[in-house]
Amino acid sequence: MSRIKTLLLSASLLGLSSGVAISAEMTVLASIKPVHALVAGVMKNVGTPGLLVEGNASPHAYSLKPSQAAALQEATLVFWVGHDLETFLDKPLETIATDGVSISLAEAPGVTRLPFRDAGADVHDDHGHDDHKHDDHSHDDDGHSEAAHADDGHGHDHGEGATDPHVWLDPANAKAMTLHIAETLSQADPQNAERYRQNAADLTARIETMTQEIAAELAPVQEQGYVVFHDAYQYFEKRFGLSQVGAITLSPEATPSAARIAEIQHRIEDTGAVCVFSEPQFNPKLVNVVIEGTPARTGTLDPLGSTLPDSADLYVELMHGMARAFKDCLAPAE
What we know:
This protein has 334 residues and is an alpha/beta fold.
């Protein structure tokens, strides 16, 4: 890591709490709410990172505000998932945040990245239930191949070598990301290194407990088929053995064709899928069109924790919230 340059920003601009013990040279930003939560957990009782994508905004189609560009210009460390998710940060990190260091957590040691799936394919068979009940930081990637990305109205071409960026939805990845955050902060701010590492140990233990609780909660609904708005959930599905049968679109920016909607409706009928999930970041009307004439119910998945208050607890809360949403919609009606 390059030598940390002395940077001073107001507490209001950086989102830093007043009276914190963090080094005056350190200013920390996080891109999206799940990343912010992990960074905030590691920085507990030291400082609070700033957040770029707030509320229910989507990182897939975000534009920086002038105040955020100013914060980037003065930032020491910027934690983000990476090029495949926060595309709005690609150029600013090169042209604005020139004095800081950006950390792509998708590339952190121990993080498993999966190739995009073809939203037109039956993905149920990819979700074996026996190989995801483990505690290490990686999956066995044998058997995974690059998903096909033909321009068939299901989404856009993600580019050769692109991987699914929703890595935080596997708690094993979140633990690996947490440890990397702690080491990065410890190098940049050695006086607080011990606290960062202890906070990371506490957070990873909490994530492990959460993983066990979610696994038990979702075990009864593993075989219930469902459809999602866009294919963002394979990390969660593979970890907990869930049975997605299709996605309306690969990319939330792409509007599915009438033929695609009809295809999903047929798939719901053929597979007996019991639920179609929307997301708070996108218009739910499309999901209502998809379920018309089918017995499927609707639910909402929030992979960003957009409705939750920003805090170090947000990651665990959003994962528990997703588990509840799956269970509530997939459980057989009484």
